[in-house]
Amino acid sequence: AQSVAQPEDQVNVAEGNPLTVKCTYSVSGNPYLFWYVQYPNRGLQFLLKYITGDNLVKGSYGFEAEFNKSQTSFHLKKPSALVSDSALYFCAVRDPNTGGFKTIFGAGTRLFVKA
Amino acid sequence: KAGVTQTPRYLIKTRGQQVTLSCSPISGHRSVSWYQQTPGQGLQFLFEYFSETQRNKGNFPGRFSGRQFSNSRSEMNVSTLELGDSALYLCASSIGQGVYEQYFGPGTRLTVT
Questions:
Q1: What stretches of chain A adopt beta strand conformation (E)?
Q2: Residue A100 at interface with chain B, using a CB cutoff of 8 Å
Q3: pLDDT tens-digit map of A40-68
Q4: Which DSSP category does A43 fall into?
Q5: Which residues of chain B neighbour A103 with C-beta distances below 8 Å?
Q6: What is the SS3 assignment for B56?
Q7: How far apart, in whole angstroms, are the C-alpha atoms of residue A102 and residue A105?
Q8: Residue A92 Cα, gap to closest chain B Cα (Å)
Q9: In sequence order, which residues have a C-beta less than 8 Å from that of residue B71 and are 6 or more positions away?
Q10: Cα gap B9→B5, rounded to integer Å
Q11: Cβ contacts (< 8 Å) between B25 and chain A: which residues?
Q12: Is A46 near chain B, with CB under 8 Å?
């Protein structure tokens, strides 16, 4: 069965510093991987996705993520954090080999960026 | 383009009642998924509809059901409400299945008393 883990409930980083939000997954085949962000009192927004090809994918708001097949990871990164990046981040996975496209979300990681 | 809309935004129901939530996807989007979000369980997948057919279902009891209409609008129904059904119910639409990202609505906040 497919699953996704976000090992950190919370990540704290100072503004201007690089940030990393971790995600590991488990699927039977080659996964489709996604990152979403949820700002306070707003819906989830798509950030970026990995389907195939280049392991480094770039997304909205300066975020990027690196797909690592050997470590089954898809960590979200940003070179320089902003206070406005403070939000709840969700990693999600789809296993295209299951015959359907059920999306499984991680538990979420709350990012706090301090000025 | 208008985003995903969900109605109503807030609902208060009592145990044993039933409720119907509505979702209008982005124009041109044919896939609609429903999720339950709670502080303890996070985002839990309920079901996905594509071309009026349920393509996937999560691990929820049969009290949770849904449907999709020919215009891609979707409804979900919860019968015999329980206190534990209190949650934010999110609808997401995408152009199709598989590789496409989802666009989420603001959610319906359901409180069961």
A1: 3-5, 10-14, 19-21, 24-26, 32-38, 44-50, 56-58, 64-68, 73-78, 87-94, 103-105, 109-114
A2: yes
A3: 877 899 999 999 888 999 999 999 999 99
A4: -
A5: 33, 45, 48, 102
A6: strand
A7: 10
A8: 10
A9: none
A10: 9
A11: none
A12: yes
